[in-house]
Amino acid sequence: MAAATAAGGDWTVVRRRGRRRGDAPPTASLPDAPPPLPVSPVPWSPSDPSVDPARVSRLVDRARAAISRLAASRLYRRLLLPDSPLRRRLALLAPTRLSVLGVGSFESSPAARLQLALAALLRRDLLPDAAADLFDPVLSAAECAAAAALGFSVPSLNDGCRRRVEEATLFYMPHCEASLYDALLAANWVSPAQLRRVCLLGNSFRRYALQVEENRSVPAATAAHVLAAARFVWEERVDEVGYVDDDDWFARAFNETSWHFFELDDDVDLAAAIAGGRR
Q1: pLDDT of amino acid 277
Q2: pTM metric for this prediction
């Protein structure tokens, strides 16, 4: 199915074929506005409730194949460099939870399977003691069962990414809408100490800021928290030149993806930062 999925509380644009992106690339036309996010958590269950054990087994096998493929890649070996700035920051933050939001349908999309594989590897190699959850409103019951088999719990509430953290948390949000990143930041825009608990792996904030400067992204222009955070966030791209393997699906899965750490002092006025971003 090539058309986008968008229904009752769904908040990820997913296409069954081709590129699955939150905001359009610079050379493409701008996407339609995403469906509104739930203001408060709403009960959720898969729209496809069937759980065929054979289907689940195939999904788990395909996910594990993607994990093996990604583990052998240049891109992933770079993440494991022991004394890199990224590893040092992760060690200082010491996340005790990994939340994977907006991964899409990993049954139908090879790119989504690679994104799921990265989440599984991050937990295995960098966050072995962390709790892990995974959510996207488009997931089927079979995908939920496969995620559970891979060690991820699936919540029964759709919070629209308005998730205030109570512990240091790594959020992996591959190619989501700008509004989803903004909702997560808004929920934690309480104090600098609260924001410092968040690490976000997702679309590049610097790229969003550039798109807004060049009037190329209406959705990003309304993401006030993302644009404000871009001024003090430490960002490192996953797909630096020379580190993405020569594979089209790797490019689709990880292009324009960055690590974001919120490194701000306690005296930063977050309300003023938002006001400044709206000028």
Answers
A1: 54
A2: 0.85
